[in-house]
Design brief:
Elements lengths: L2 H7 L13 H11 L11 E6 L2 H11 L11 H6 L4 E7 L1 H7 L19 H19 L3 E5 L6 H8 L6 E2 L2 E5 L28
Antiparallel strand pairs: 1-2, 2-4, 2-5, 3-5
Helix pairs in contact: 1-6, 2-6, 3-7
Length: 202
């Protein structure tokens, strides 16, 4: 598929069949993720891959805001729970602070205030987009969504995510199916790109 077509076709998929995903495709998506840019080539990302029915179920048990919903899921959850692959992209602030304390960078105080933006999260997000685009290129569906804040500690405990890394979201991957919850693009028009571009200044 041509790159422009990948960009055009990529959208958030919220309903999946139970058909398995080729592990080689998942590996390819993860390899592509590590080609994302990272400040100082810090590469402070990690990816928790859940690709067995048991682990995927454990994810939903640890992550939903109300575990009772697993027995009576709403339309969104029912469609998402079928995804055979769940990936938790994580960022490491520590990796960036350490990298920029090295001699070629020289911020030996490791002061987080030096950073105008949390590049550790931004770089993990760019890596996540490459996973989404790879899924599209492979004819699969994928969705990036946020974690429930008060369930993050449950996710950490369930999958041994260390304190040095923070989940920045969740990616589901699978074969698209009909019947999932409608996304915001069904209710809101896409803003023309010309309306958000300011040449030479605002």
């Amino acid at each position: 598929m041509e790159f422009a077509e990948v960009v055009r076709r990529r959208h958030m998929v919220r309903s999946y069949s139970t058909e398995p995903v080729d592990p080689a495709v998942v590996d390819r998506a993860l390899e592509h993720a590590t080609r994302a840019p990272s400040a100082g080539f810090s590469q402070g990302w990690a990816f928790v891959v859940l690709d067995t029915p048991t682990d995927v179920r454990r994810f939903w048990e640890a992550s939903v805001d109300d575990p009772a919903k697993l027995d009576a899921p709403d339309r969104w959850l029912a469609g998402m729970m079928n995804a055979p692959v769940v990936i938790l992209p994580c960022s490491s602030k520590a990796a960036y602070l350490e990298r920029y304390a090295e001699p070629d960078k020289g911020w030996t105080d490791r002061d987080e205030a030096r950073w105008p933006m949390p590049f550790w999260h931004m770089d993990a997000a760019m890596a996540s987009l490459l996973i989404l685009q790879t899924a599209t290129d492979e004819g699969l569906g994928a969705c990036f969504f946020g974690t429930v804040p008060h369930r993050v500690q449950h996710l950490r405990a369930a999958f041994g995510i260390p304190a040095t890394h923070d989940p920045v979201g969740v990616i589901t991957i699978g074969h698209p199916a009909t019947g999932g919850a409608a996304g915001s693009p069904t209710r809101r028009a896409r803003t023309p790109w010309q309306d958000v571009v300011h040449r030479g200044g605002w």
